[in-house]
Design goal:
This protein is α/β, with parallel strands linked by helices. The strands form six sheets. A nine-stranded mixed β-sheet has the order 13-12-14-15-22-21-20-17-18, sandwiched between helices. Helix 5 packs across helix 6 and helix 11 (269-280) crosses helix 12.
Length: 533
């Protein structure tokens, strides 16, 4: 899957939609993303650069497209599913230092391109998949993408009809002329052809429906058969995209081009069940999301999607109100949060905007607002409770105040000697045992769970008893390390913080039980009185 003209066309969504359709036909599919940047992984990137950092079960800090992949397919990804230029080079350089190249001059072609191909084929060779969908990040024509495109060209040559290239482009509408323009698409396909790749299928991203004549014209100019020119028009939800692409037979075209035998239609009944709920929901549940990246669309992608899914299954539309934690203070908190049915306190790193999160945690606790603290959000709940209930005024996390006398959130011993930033946090899935009778245990319907982590700091067990006695219970812990993973205040409607990130494992077909329970509490909190306020 390549992209042209501009970025942000939704290559990840189209890739995930193709995967959904093939899966629904009974094939085993996995998706992988190649990112052309030099960072080893996006873990060290500010969300302003590439949006949310997603985390796989095996502890890889990954591009947010992997979140789309998992949400659409229900198939878990690993570090093999997201590879950057940095990782490719690192691996080649490691091999060179080991002497693996036996005195050869190490070059972009063939060594870097071979390494790229190795990473594509690796997933196929596991024997677990009928299809590997490889998304090449960036846009055709970028300098950084060239080695990846060269690898695609070689793969296409080697694999014959076992390799299909789908190219996603953009067809802009020029308002003043009242016309849709296919020229950028023609140019972008030309650019692909220049590096030796003839796309098999085109997906034209457009805000307005393209006529058949236009598609025919594109087909003719781009050497693509007419039936393989499809379009992706704006739809109300990304989860409509698989259906839209199926109506244009995209799955069938790919199966035919790869000479894969198939019969009948994909079974999209469960998908449709969800979509119908999403489409038909008229009631709105209002959730305040307190975070510092509120002006950024993709910063809390997985949380947004988890809430949308859970709300839909409760026949509601979720309206997320992004509340900037930097602006939040004691004077405006009531005005900003009192109209909400529930509040999420977002994950985060560093000092900026933390005091606002404490203000939110306190206001929500004192006003019995259903509240979900995630990772740093949970740590804020703990710090606020220590300050205002336990009376430990200077309580803090040593992340913000290394010399706090009340380090209720602190670094684990094994983290203290770590200085490198990349990939050194507590990452990936860890087991958690829940306390019988707790609200979380009730929500999960089981006592033993596994959830994904991405943090350095932890609840300090020295304070555990004091918290428990004062009413904040530690209701989930890691069975091996006894680290506290979940806190809740049982006498509130819903006041729960998780050290882990449940949002990474909520999918369309399996909405996360904790988001389901939180959303139920928020909906129950609506009440007629509240709406009148
Ligand atoms: N900054 C906190 C830590 O490192 C929380 C991280 C997060 O919210 N993901 O522990």
């Amino acid at each position: 899957m390549t992209g042209g003209v501009v970025s942000s066309l939704g290559k990840g969504i189209i890739s995930a939609s193709v995967a959904r359709l093939l899966l629904s036909r009974g094939f085993n599919v996995t998706l992988q993303k190649f990112d052309p940047y030099i960072n080893i992984d996006p873990g060290t990137l500010n969300p302003y650069e590439h949006g949310e950092c997603y985390v796989t079960v095996d502890g890889h800090e990954a591009d947010l497209d992997l979140g789309h992949y998992e949400r659409f397919t229900n198939v878990q990804t690993t570090r093999a599913n997201n590879v950057t230029t940095g990782r490719i080079y690192q691996s080649v350089i490691d091999k060179e230092r080991r002497g693996d190249y036996l005195g050869k001059t190490v070059q972009i072609v063939p060594h870097i391109t071979d390494e790229i191909k190795l990473n594509v084929k690796h997933l196929g060779e596991t024997g677990d998949y009928d299809f590997v969908i490889t998304e090449i990040g960036g846009t055709v024509g970028d300098i950084e993408s060239l080695p990846f495109l060269e690898a695609v060209r070689q793969l296409k040559w080697e694999l014959g009809n076992r390799c299909v290239v789908v190219h996603l482009t953009y067809v802009p509408y020029i308002k003043a002329a009242g016309e849709l323009k296919t020229k950028p698409t023609q140019h972008s396909v030309k650019q692909l052809q220049q590096v030796g790749i003839q796309p098999d299928v085109l997906v034209l991203r457009t805000e307005r429906e393209l006529s058949e004549a236009m598609c025919r014209k594109v087909a003719q100019f781009c050497n693509v058969s007419v039936n393989a020119v499809t379009q992706s028009v704006d739809v109300p939800s990304i989860y409509e995209v698989p259906l839209m692409m199926h109506r244009q037979h995209l799955d069938q075209i790919i199966l035919e081009k790869t000479a894969t035998p198939f019969t009948g239609e994909p079974d999209l009944s469960k998908w449709n069940l969800f979509l119908n709920k999403l489409r038909n929901a008229t009631e709105v549940v209002n959730i305040g999301l307190v975070g510092k990246y509120v002006e950024l669309q993709d910063a809390y992608k997985s949380i947004d999607e988890s809430m949308l899914q859970a709300a839909a299954y409760h026949d509601h539309k979720v309206k997320i109100h992004y509340v900037s934690s930097e602006r939040l203070n004691d004077n405006n908190v009531s005005q900003l949060l009192s109209g909400m049915d529930g509040v999420v306190i977002a994950p985060g790193f560093g000092q900026r905007g933390t005091e606002g999160k404490f203000v939110a945690a306190r206001w929500c606790r004192e006003h019995d607002m259903p509240t979900f603290g995630i990772c740093f959000g949970m740590q804020c709940m703990v710090i606020e409770f220590a300050r205002n209930v336990l009376g430990l005024e200077l309580a803090n996390s040593t992340e913000m105040d290394p010399s706090t006398p009340h380090n209720v959130i602190d670094l684990m011993e094994e983290q203290k000697s770590i200085t490198a930033m990349g990939g050194t946090m507590r990452l990936g899935a860890y087991a958690c045992h829940l306390t019988e009778g707790s609200r979380v245990a009730h929500a999960y319907g089981t006592l033993d769970i596994e959830e994904r982590h991405r943090h350095r700091f932890e609840f300090n067990n020295l304070f555990r008893e004091a918290f428990e006695e004062a009413g904040m219970r530690c209701v989930g812990e890691n069975p091996a390390s006894h680290l506290v993973e979940v806190v809740e205040i049982p006498d509130k409607k819903w006041y729960i913080g998780t050290q882990y990130h449940p949002e990474y494992s909520s999918t369309v077909l399996n909405p996360h039980p904790l988001f389901m329970d939180f959303m139920a509490a928020a909906i129950a909190n609506k009440g007629p009185l509240k709406n009148e306020q």
